[in-house]
Amino acid sequence: MRTLFLFFCLLFVSGTASAQGFKAYQWRKDIAFLEKELPQRHKDFFRHYPEPDFRLALDSLREALPGLEDWEVVLRLQEIICRAGDSHTAITSEGLRNGPAYPLDFHWFEEGLFVMGATTVASLDTLLGKKLLAVNGIAVDEIAARAARLMVVDNASILRLRLPRLISSSYTLRYIGVVEGSSAVFTFRNADGFTFNLPVETVPARSVESAFATFQPEAYAFTERDNRKPFWHEYLETEQILYIRYNRCTSREVETKYGNRKKARQLPSFEKFSQEVLAVLETRPVKKLVFDVSNNPGGSSQQGTALAEKIGQAYHGDVFVVIGKRTYSSAVLNTLDFQQYCRATLVGEPTSGRPNHFGEVRKFRLPYSGATVMYSTKYFQKVDGDPVAIEPDIPIELSFSDF
């Protein structure tokens, strides 16, 4: 009986070792594919990253493969890719996106990180509006410093933009040594200054949105009435202000151009929108025009450029562009367009995107793991020098108390 037991133990161990060995073999194939394809497809992958260092980092990863889980391999690859200094180039996987998550949504305000969304399960929605101080006794600033190696930190804005999502990911917090298991102790402070600890368990990422509550301020500014629409405008008759909200550099025309007909049918026409904006300028008294890209992460810049040119020709009054930490990629280019064609004054927070940057992103998949690699195919040289962000002429940082 003891011999039979030992036989089954040996069979199980050897079977597990074979499975691990095969998985490591698959990852070696994927890493070799990435090592060849990414530098070839990218516009200039080695601009800031010496090629020998890239090869050496991948060799080190290959040696470590037998002891790594899939999500760890993807994060190791992300850390390596980040060293190229292109915030548009990255790797992700379905397993990483849908892995265990803490059912909390954070936003960085002037005062720090606050809970803006939480599951109603276990009454976590009572945390809405509370400030996050630490996780497992590690302060938010230290977590940010550790997580920085998983992103290209061009400036403070991009770190503040991306950190909230990383803190909600159990895999990320495990990778940077903040947590070990599925539970973590979060430290919060309420509006009265009372500090308290609360253990929070992970849930599957896909289930986070169910039974999810969001922080509701006493009143929303009219500018926040609909962040789901890619663009909209409103004429404020009393103030004689034309307000344009540009949330996403996309449209029916853009998606049609790139062959996404199904998606195109679900989006509004930017050409029609532009005509409506110009009609307001032609038929209404406009003392000020406000173009708000503070919530715009980018897309295709051409339609925004064309609108800036048309407004510059049709209107010669005061133009203000609202920017913020979500202003990125093509939204940065359109900000520069409004400066060029409309002599715009910039208001808000520094952008997360650099004026000069890589872009025009394409994708490929690794053959075995199916992980998706995003890479840049173009470099935009828009201004002299290499500033890390567009700075506002009139700085206004959104505070939680203002919100």
Can you walk me through this structure?
- With 403 residues, the protein is of the alpha+beta class.
- Helix content is 37%, strand content 23%.
- It contains twelve helices and 18 strands.
- The chain has helices at residues 2-41, 51-64, 70-82, 94-97, 140-147, 156-168, 170-175, 252-257, 261-265, 270-283, 302-314, 330-342, and strands spanning 90-92, 100-101, 104-109, 112-119, 131-135, 138-139, 183-189, 195-201, 203-204, 212-214, 231-236, 241-246, 288-292, 318-323, 345-348, 357-365, 372-380, 394-395.
- Strands 11-12-13-14-15-18 form a six-stranded mixed sheet, covered by helices on one side.
- The protein is globular, with a radius of gyration of 24 Å.
- The protein starts with a helix and ends in an 8-residue tail after the last strand.
- The model is unreliable at 3-19 (pLDDT under 50).
